[in-house]
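In this section we walk through a basic example: taking a raw amino acid sequence and producing a predicted 3D structure, encoded as discrete structure tokens. The instruction is simple. Fold the sequence below.
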Amino acid sequence: MKAREYLDILHVAEKLKDTPRHCTTTKGRTESVAEHSWRISLMAFLLKHEFPDLDIDKVVDMCLIHDLGECFTGDIPTFIKTDNDREVEDSLLNKWVKSLPEELSTDITELYKEMDAQETKEAKLYKSLDKLEALIQHNESPLDTWSDNEYELNKTYAFDTVSFSDWLTELRKEILDDTLKKIESEKQ
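The resulting token sequence is shown next.
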């Protein structure tokens, strides 16, 4: 890859720093897609010893690239994202990935295929972390930033996604416990 191609890729990816996400931080600041991607990558790295049979480097790669399509469309919360929104995002992302240097394009395309198929434990771990991070972030954000549907979502979301792993199921239960405590604190 030429230095200019490398910089051009970074300039596209930089858009995620300015792409707001639905979630807010602890202090109520709107988080960026880049911040979300960074944290799920960190979450994967921290699980290296909990999942020694998995290729954690591959999971980190998945976490790093999973929302690159949002460079082109912005973030649309999962509970309002339509099939048409997904098709547009996928089309724009695929066009961009195909324009990358061949080896990189192949690597990214293979990762996306594995992520979409959700057949490997690496892909399942990435998907679980993506969903769990959103729940954790909601628990860290002020309750007045939650939309009405998020009270129920934070109680029910992602249990099916983590069911392949006892460890992740336990983590999901801990997140639910935090959710219930947060909601209860609002009543006081």
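Looking at the output, two observations stand out. The chain has one domain: 3-187. The mean pLDDT is 95. In the next section we compare this with other chains.
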